[in-house]
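Q: Got a minute? One more chain.
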Amino acid sequence: MSFQLALAMSILLSQNTFIITRDNNPLKGNIESLRYQNARIDSLKIPRVKTHQDIRTFLETGKLSRVLDVMPGYYIHPSVDPKTRFLRPEAKRYLECLGEDYYHNFRKPLKITSICRTETRQKQLYQTGISFADASRGEIQSAHLACTAFDFSINEMTPEEILFLSKYLVNDRASGKIDAFLEILSRHFHVVVF
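A: Always. Here it is, folded:
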């Protein structure tokens, strides 16, 4: 993201009365964002998960860490497969810090709705139109396959909470730590940690 765009977003988001819509969403996802995420993942030589066995192997070699089901700053929704509740260590740390900051401000945890995905699961989501990221097409693969991404729901959040999280993620996106989308139609944030 360019410095000018980051500055414009910061100014826009500094208005406490600002309501995010599809038209003014500062974290709108698109195909270029997917390409950027995959280029960063490839440049860091982060392997992607194909099967549950890959998850076990990456866990044994320290490339993945288990994400606890409940922490003060977040909880994993029961619909998330227990065999995929893993992230790369830096993504897990980021989730914990984001959750703690959110909890500190709003006294409630984030609801995590997706973490690591296998290739089979990503194909299902792509084929049913739930995800526009593919499981096997290089530059538009889901970052969930690299276990660097997590999603959390904005259902039951106030506009102030969504604004707080948008500001937080815009700042970290500008620094290059993460990439993030606010997917208004599917009602969640998608965060990729590098």
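A: The longest helix spans residues 89-106.
Q: Perfect, thanks.
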